[in-house]
Amino acid sequence: MTATASKTLDRVLVLEMVRVTEAAAIAASTLTGRGDEKAADAAAVDAMRTALNSLYMDGTVVIGEGERDEAPMLFIGEKVGSAIGKGPKIDIALDPLEGTTICATAGPNALAVLAIAEEGGLLNAPDVYMDKIAVGPGYPEGIIDLDKSPTENVTALAAAKGVKPSDIIACVLDRPRHAKIIAELRAIGCGIMLIGDGDVAGVIATTNPDTTIDIYMGSGGAPEGVLACAALRCVGGQFKGRLLFRNDDERARAAKWGVTDLDKQYDLTELARGDCIFAATGVTDGSLLAGVKRKGTIMTTESVVMRASSGTVRWVKGEHRI
User: Fold this and answer.
1) Which residue range forms the structural domain that includes residue 316?
2) What pLDDT digit, counting tens, does each position of 203-228 carry?
3) C-beta separation of 74 from 28 below 8 A
4) Is 2 within a domain?
5) Which of 14, 48, 126, 295 has the fewest CB atoms nearer than 10 Å to its CB?
């Protein structure tokens, strides 16, 4: 179902969101391959915050760099924008540098990512892990379910697609915790694309046939799950997520942000509701976007910006003189 257009979001131009992610990507790109994750992330955070504060809005960071005592800027709850108290109220989910390790090692798929919605439109997801599964558009509703095994999910997807399970390709973060999932998928002949980082890009890849990825599964950060859902709301697809808690401290953190059902399986529209806008700019080359390139006094960027209410996807190439 297409979201109803928001008059609030109409006041925050779609292309302004691209300018914000472009600024973060350009800043991070100056440290690509330099081996310093913290410096690259700090550069992206500073540039994104400066760009956000130039926009006429009353913005609140609901997914950010962490809680106030963990992050000096773009922390959860921070107010941004040039019209605090009088401008349109906007919820913001962001990751100024999704894939800090990727950027530091000049690997693929590092992105600057941002999603906005009307106040209350994005889940205040605590900074914990989330079990995730996602597919692109065009499948019967309910085709994926976290209560089913990887084999059952892939088999159902293959049947809907009219192929064998061995023709399906799954994207999975390359982590020791996913060894069981990987072994089960390989046992049924399913192809696996292992990625070192960047699960927002991994989820979005399921919507693009050129990537050949059919399904994303495994656990990653809950904030990244909300960002990925904002993108899926715009282009179609299905997502299921369940928060994972390792200790009482993480459960207490969830309670602080209003999460009461710790075993809830969240649907796409519960994580990103109503109209929303998603923007991303490539920092390094990847399956979704080209990375920032410097050619003399010009830096080039490639971005994508999407809106849920219209289903519009815009690909934006920029030249920035430095």
Assistant:
1) 11-122+275-321
2) 999 998 888 999 999 999 988 999 99
3) no
4) no
5) 295
Binding-site residue ranges for Mn(2+): 41, 65, 95, 98, 224
Residues in binding site = 41, 65, 95, 98-100, 129, 175-177, 197-199, 221, 224
For residues 130 and 220, the answer to whether their CB atoms sit within 8 Å is yes
pTM summary value: 0.90
Residue 89 domain-assigned (yes or no):
yes
Per DSSP, the chain holds a count of helices (H) and strands (E) of 10, 14
Contact present, 33 and 110 (Cβ < 8 Å): no
Q: What span, in angstroms and rounded, lies between the C-alpha atoms of 200 and 202?
A: 5
Q: What share of the chain is helix, strand, coil (3-state, %, to 5)?
A: 35, 30, 40
Annotated binding-site ranges for substrate: 98-100, 129, 175-177, 197-199, 221
CB distance 81 to 58 below 8 Å: yes
CATH number assigned to the domain comprising residue 162: 3.40.190.90
C-alpha to C-alpha distances, 260 to 20, 32, 147, 250, 254, nearest whole angstrom: 34, 40, 20, 13, 8
Name the residue among 296, 302, 287, 289 with its Cα closest to residue 321: 296
**How many CB atoms neighbour CB 73 within 10 A?**
16
User: pLDDT digits over 276-285, tens only?
Assistant: 999 999 999 9
pLDDT per position as a tens digit, 34-63: 999 999 999 999 999 999 999 999 999 999
As for how many domains the chain has, the answer is 2
Q: Tokens 């003399």, residue?
A: 296
| Phi, then psi, of 117 in degrees rounded to 5 | -150, 170
